[in-house]
Write a structure and sequence with these properties.
Layout (H helix, E strand, L loop, with lengths): L4 H11 L1 H13 L5 H31 L3 E10 L1 H12 L10 H20 L7 H5 L2 E8 L4 E7 L8 E8 L2 E6 L4
Parallel strand pairs: 3-5
Antiparallel strand pairs: 1-2, 1-4, 2-3, 4-5
Helix pairs in contact: 1-3, 2-3
Length: 182
Amino acid sequence: MTLNKLAKIMLFFNSYSFFFILIILKTWANKGMELLIKIIFSLLFIFIIIISLIFTLIIVIQAKANVDTYLKIKKIEDSQVNILGYIFSYIVPFIDLDLSNIYELLIMAILIYIIGYYYIKSNLFHLNPTLNMCSFKISRIVTEDDKTIIIIYKNNEINKNSKLKTKIISKNIHVGVIDSGD
């Protein structure tokens, strides 16, 4: 199963799940917004959150069940530090938007589109705070045949000599588990 464009979009929306929850809360705190608009915003974002979470879980479950390849790690870079930069650069600035202002909503939509386009085209799936909060780690590794890939795995500790069973979900993105030699 190679990720198609829809799957990549769902992973992007998944990375914004907590932001969408904040938008829902902010919508309900906005006293100047009509009830119908609040309900529509809330339902839209809840729908996006649920669909993206379900899609992400399906990707991870299918990947764990169907191994494509075995990898031996030569070098590993933990990508978790980049997540804080992602949150502060791409999520926090949206918190101050006035959701009752149509122009600010348009600005938010355009920015989310631009960030999503870059996220998907650049395969920045390792920048996903939602996966991180669900006990997944995402690291950039170099294999013994000098291929650089992004690996998504449950919070097992992997190191330079680990062997991984992986499922390829995109060109350089794998979901994996440590090969225990069973």
